[in-house]
């Protein structure tokens, strides 16, 4: 199920020539629950709204921090309801659906050098930086844009049963999209500037 839905959402992102956050632009034709396993193939249907009926996103919301080895990585996770994914291709009927998602912003500092920071930005891109909590799985997954290296990668976020609250943020190593020319990445640097290998992040005030 995870693979099917992820491919669906990624395909929409790649081929959409526009997206709109105004949920009233196109009508909701049906609704499904992201928690209901039996509805997993219905979420991407045209006009469908996949809802977070069990408020599972709440456990991920907040600012989270990883600080080790000269790296400070802060992740801000927020809820966004009824995000539209829309495909518009000339000569074809517009297709769309909605989903309740999590949006991601981040700050990255390495060796006291600020590489990127949009934690307090008013803009949000729920197509490039998002996570979706599907059914009763114990993780959310989606995509994040590493702005320093200009590469998008898939990730999972797993909430741990700890006090203080913690998550495991895992930026996957082999599922990514390079946005620059291939020569840009032949500099001997890691593909991502965002930490990988399943980092543990603690919730902060």
Structure in words:
It comes from Flavobacterium microcysteis. Residues 6-137 form the DUF6705 domain. InterPro entries: DUF6705. Keywords: Signal. This is DUF6705 domain-containing protein. This protein has 205 residues and is mainly beta. The chain has one domain. The chain is 7% helix and 45% strand. It contains 1 helix and 11 strands. It has an 8-stranded antiparallel β-barrel. The longest helix is centred in the first third of the chain and has 14 residues, at 2-15. It is globular and about 50 Å long.
Name the descriptors:
205 residues, mainly beta, eight-stranded antiparallel barrel, 1 helix, 7% helix, globular, disordered N terminus
Summarize this entry quickly.
This is DUF6705 domain-containing protein. Helix content is 7%, strand content 45%. It is mainly β.
Please give the structural blueprint.
Layout (H helix, E strand, L loop, with lengths): L1 H14 L14 E4 L14 E4 L10 E7 L2 E17 L7 E16 L2 E5 L12 E3 L6 E8 L4 E10 L5 E13 L20 E5 L2
Parallel strand pairs: 1-2, 2-5
Antiparallel strand pairs: 3-4, 3-11, 4-5, 5-6, 5-7, 7-8, 8-9, 9-10, 10-11
